[in-house]
Amino acid sequence: MVTREENELITRVEGDAPMGKLIRENSWIPFSLSDNLVAGEAPTPVRLLGENFVSWRVPDGRVGFLAEGCPHLQASLLLAHVEGDGLRCIYHGWKTDVSGSVVEAPTQVVRHDRFCASIKVTHFPVHEAGNIAWVWLGGPDPPPFPDLPFTAEHGNTTALTFSALPVNWLQALEGGLDSVHAGILHQSWTRNVIAEKGEAMDEGKATIAFTKIPTYEVGESTFGMKAASLRKQDDGKTYARVTNFFFPLVIVAATGFVDRNHVFAFGPVDDTNHLLFFGSYGTAPVSQKDFGAVREDFDPDPRNFSAVSGDRSNRWGQNRDLMAAGHHSGFSRSVVDEDSVVQVSMGPIVDRSKDSLSGSDGAVANARLLLLDALAAYEDGVLPPGSARGQGAVRIPDPYDAVLGPDQSWRDIGRES
Ligand code: FES
Ligand SMILES: [Fe+2]
């Protein structure tokens, strides 16, 4: 059970909050879909860990990422002209380039070049992988980017949605680890998928996953946690689905489809907002619609897929007529809407001391413990699991699923730690 104080500790990321510090100093943080950073477009506002930044793509493909305030007198660079490989502030015309150097300062006539060279600009390195742009906010000398399974280096492409959601990042992370809700919250969608795409699924595993309540077993790993959901079949075998939690911002999970795995990545904006990157990856390119996660007549906004509308006074836009007609949740546009609405409905930072955990909440309960343990250890100078600053490369293996015989353990078929 998490106390109120512990809850504060694992959720808050702004200012000097220990969790924000841990993330800042150890993780590359996702902030945009690569496709949404288009050369020549106005600078994009980015907010992470309670601080404001701007990002933009320059014609040669590089991505700039600066503190929002102009290095001169802090006017917002969101207002700036995009000029070549830099941003020119509209206030006094200073130009800062993509590498974080002031290259022109028209207000300084004497020793102009030397003056420009002396200006410190808060600039951060960006790495793109899996159609996501990730930033390193942890200081100079960025560590190597981790080896993620959903990248082109592994022959994979992603089909991702991007949403900015008004709720603490940990509520979304826990939703990603909690596969039990798939067969309940998403049941109307999954019924359709099984009916329409059954042939694309592996030995009917998805049917089992969506109809049986699992128990969970977890294993620690160097990158974070492996969470196995175990569902007993009627023939005595067990369907095991192993999810890899790359601590603390990424989850990869099996879907039951042949050659498709889920990806979740979370960008903590501040204490009460986060960015969600959700979708799937595999060797064959698919769109989100091909994969079935959206209603056919819903044309999503690539820059905000799941815009939660309304509030508790209108049940966040829930369609009760649809429910009366048999739809489970009353949110039929996409599965992401179903997740977003339930997470927002919990309140901006849910008080976990009031939870009543049940037998299927093992992955969530262990993730909370892992966060608390990692925070305590970090205080003592021990790097958290999956830290980009650790010894050796960080590698996240593919998730997997399998039907186990009566005497088999999911650990026996585990491929990599
Ligand atoms: S504040 Fe930007 S140039 Fe002066
Ligand atoms: Fe969900």
Describe the structure.
By secondary structure, the chain is an alpha+beta fold. The chain folds into two domains: 29-135, Rieske [2Fe-2S] iron-sulphur domain (Rieske Iron-sulfur Protein); 152-413, Naphthalene 1,2-dioxygenase Alpha Subunit, Chain A, domain 1, CATH 3.90.380. Helix content is 20%, strand content 25%. It contains nine helices and 18 strands. The chain is globular and about 85 Å long. Bound molecules: FE2/S2 (inorganic) cluster and fe (ii) ion. Fe (ii) ion (FE2) is lined by residues 175, 181-182, 185-186, 335, 339.
The hetero compounds bound to this protein are: FE2/S2 (inorganic) cluster, fe (ii) ion
Give the quaternary arrangement of the chains: single chain
| Strand tally | 18
Query: Averaged pLDDT, please?
Result: 92
Please state the overall shape, judged from the principal axes of the Cα atoms.
globular
CATH-defined fold name of the largest domain? Naphthalene 1,2-dioxygenase Alpha Subunit, Chain A, domain 1
Query: Which CATH architecture of the largest domain is right?
Result: Alpha-Beta Complex
Estimated structural class: alpha+beta
CATH class of the largest domain: Alpha Beta
Task: Write down the Rg.
Answer: 23 Å
Describe the main β-sheet briefly.
8 strands, antiparallel
Distance between the termini: 28 Å
User: Poorly predicted ranges (pLDDT <50, ≥5 residues)?
Assistant: none
Helix content bin: 10-25%
**Strand-residue proportion:** 25-35%
